[in-house]
């Protein structure tokens, strides 16, 4: 129970900091708890298996809360249905790009295969990244870390980078953020606008499922 209390207190504190800072992505409320818990593990004060068991109720609640992302999606479904070919093409292109930008530089640097496989899962949600990494010979713990870092980077700089590139359509921005930044990026998109959040939720879902299904099939061919 103590780790449930610690996790809850860390999140409440980080959420208060996030609000006080004007909801800036660089103080995202997930960042502080993750940093503290990783440090506790590295110092030997936290056993991951015990932590997972102790905080299982949070996992259940999170699974239910994710359903809430469907709200902005449903509100903006009409626009995306009218442009479904472009939407699906954008998600497919982003999905392929996400995997290739991770593994091609790593291949050129001679990265070990286990790390390479873990990198390939960087743009899908943590549960899918864990199972996909296991299926293709990656290291789930490394995959989780890479997924979190990717989400934070997308949430922090993604919207600004897209605007610098001349992308100002909220649906297009949402598709890019959701495809590249999974749940953390999608949460930031929801905060920025309803249209952006709806597109991001759709992109996160399609990208996650297709990557998790396709990657184990094509990885042995690489």
In short:
79% of the residues lie in helices and 0% in strands. The protein is mainly α and 222 residues long.
What does this structure look like?
- The protein folds into two domains: 1-54, no CATH class; 69-221, no CATH class.
- The protein is mainly α.
- The longest helix has 25 residues, at 84-108.
- The radius of gyration is 18 Å and the shape is globular.
- Helices cover 79% and strands 0% of the residues.
- Helix 8 crosses helix 10.
Number of strands: 0
Q: Can you write the helix and strand succession as a string?
A: HHHHHHHHHHHH
SS summary, helix count? 12
Uncertain runs: none
Structural class: mainly alpha
* C-alpha termini separation: 45 Å
Helical percentage: over 70%
Radius of gyration: 18 Å
State the major sheet.
none
The coarse overall form would be globular
**In what range is the share of β-strand residues?**
under 5%
Count of all domains = 2
Mean of pLDDT: 86
What topology emerges from the helices and strands here?
Layout: H1 2-20, H2 31-42, H3 48-54, H4 56-66, H5 70-75, H6 77-82, H7 84-108, H8 113-119, H9 126-135, H10 140-164, H11 170-192, H12 194-218
Helix pairs in contact: 1-2, 7-11, 7-12, 8-10, 9-10, 9-12, 10-11, 11-12
Please describe the structure with a list of short key phrases separated by commas or semicolons:
mainly alpha; globular; 222 residues; 0% strand; single chain
């Amino acid at each position: 129970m103590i780790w449930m209390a610690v996790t809850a207190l860390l999140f409440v504190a980080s959420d208060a900091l996030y609000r006080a800072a004007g909801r800036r992505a660089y103080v995202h409320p997930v960042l502080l708890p993750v940093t503290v818990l990783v440090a506790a593990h590295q110092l030997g004060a936290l056993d991951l298996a015990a932590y997972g068991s102790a905080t299982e109720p949070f996992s259940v609640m999170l699974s239910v809360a994710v359903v809430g992302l469907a709200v902005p999606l449903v509100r903006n479904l009409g626009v995306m249905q009218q442009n479904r070919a472009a939407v699906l093409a954008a998600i497919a292109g982003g999905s392929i790009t996400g995997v290739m930008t991770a593994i091609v530089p790593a291949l050129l640097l001679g990265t070990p295969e286990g790390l390479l496989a873990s990198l390939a899962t960087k743009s899908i949600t943590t549960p899918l990244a864990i199972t996909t990494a296991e299926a293709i010979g990656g290291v789930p713990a490394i995959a989780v870390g890479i997924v979190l870092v990717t989400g934070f980077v997308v949430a922090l700089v993604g919207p600004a980078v897209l605007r610098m590139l001349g992308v100002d359509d909220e649906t297009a921005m949402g598709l890019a953020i959701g495809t590249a930044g999974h749940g953390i990026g999608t949460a930031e998109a929801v905060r920025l606008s309803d249209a952006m959040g709806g597109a991001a939720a759709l992109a996160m879902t399609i990208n996650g499922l297709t990557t998790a299904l396709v990657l184990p099939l094509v990885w042995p061919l690489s």
